[in-house]
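Dear Dr. H.,

I hope your travels went smoothly. While you were away I took the liberty of generating a structure for the chain from your last submission, since the lab meeting agenda had it listed for discussion. I wanted you to have the full record in hand beforehand rather than looking at slides cold. The sequence, exactly as received, is reproduced here:
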Amino acid sequence: MLLGVTQTAETPAEIPAEAPAPRGRPRSRVHRAWFVAAVTFVTIIGAAAFASLPGLLIDPLHSEFDWSRGEIGFAVSVNLALYGLTAPFAAALMDRFGIRRVVAVALTVIATGSALTTVMTAAWQMVLYWGVLVGLGSGSMALAFAATVTDRWFVARRGLVTGILTAAGASGQLVFLPLLSWLVENHGWRPAAITVALSALVVVPFVWLLLRDHPADVGLAPYGSEEFKPKPPPVTGAARRAVTVLFDAARTGPFWLLAGTFAICGASTNGLVKTHFIPAAHDHGMQITAAASLLAVIGVFDIVGTIASGWFTDRFDARRLLAVYYALRGVSLLFLPMLLVQGGGDVRPPMLFFIVFYGLDWVATVPPTIALCREYYGADSAIVFGWVLASHQVGAGIVAFAGGTVRDVTGSYDMVWYGSGALCAAAALMALLIRSRAKAAPAPAPVSAA
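The corresponding predicted structure, in token form, is as follows:
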């Protein structure tokens, strides 16, 4: 069922659990799943401002409070790590309390933490406000949110929808990064933090009024399916389920290979380029607004690359796609130190080529990674992906801290660029080691609701 579906005022409770979706009534032109995907896209964009800010804060906070880059990087690393570690529990909480409630609370926590940073006076407060509060809130808005929506509302076009929702984060970066960099440079970092808080709050009414937890809530079958599926009962024991799924998945080799490759993905994107590219470019004489604009360009091409990757994932072997993505990313990072030196603070064509190339590859790894989680772990795939995402953010957090520390000790980021390039080469090899599901041992059975 690709286009029309039934939409009536009838409540889901009036549809028998075993019955197929009703037929013979007026059909809408577009399946409701696409409206849910659109609301999810806008929500992720609205929450994406928090991801644009850390790289802009390093130099201003260092100048105002005389905090070392390592101290600031530690707060960012706590944020990134909690972002990932919260994700699997958030996916389980969505099964227990519903997507709308979890996402609305998460956005409010992000807004609170970001607003509180404007009154901080000590480094530990940044760790608490930005690291803990924004980290916990953003973790509940992580890619597990997109995976949960995709799994519930779509049977067909899952790879494409995953790519589109993943690209929403890049779209948010595109929208907010130039604005935030202008605010930081012309009005200070505090108005930028308030902007992040307001952008998160503005999205809350859209989530509450327009987002729906399950197709059965509106009496529909998922997009691409003729079979109506009743809404499952709330799953209790969310935390226990998340941990149980982790223990089951950890007994399989593909989980560790996926977690390892995704940790390197996080290290080479959020932890390295998103956090340290702006101060590294500033070290070589580039204006903050120019460096931030380059990151925004990464966001533009990230949208193209991620959607294309979703399309490729529906058609090609996800393992080979991952190997190609990581290999190309590693090669590009090896050239970055030379480009920064040769640019001398100017934005020259070779740097633009790097930015475009890196943007196309930025989170192109997400659709094939989610597809492999779904292939191996079935009904538990969203929670398993949450744990894989946790490794992504732990890798990002380690490099966010290590990058600042290396810059404090050596006066340069060069060692971090080269080290991350080597890690990407290792990730390419790890991706090729993941066996096809048809050749692998059976995945563990889905964890029953506790």
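Two observations you may find useful: Residues 158-187 form the longest helix (30 residues). The chain is about 75% helix and 0% strand.

With kind regards,
E. W.
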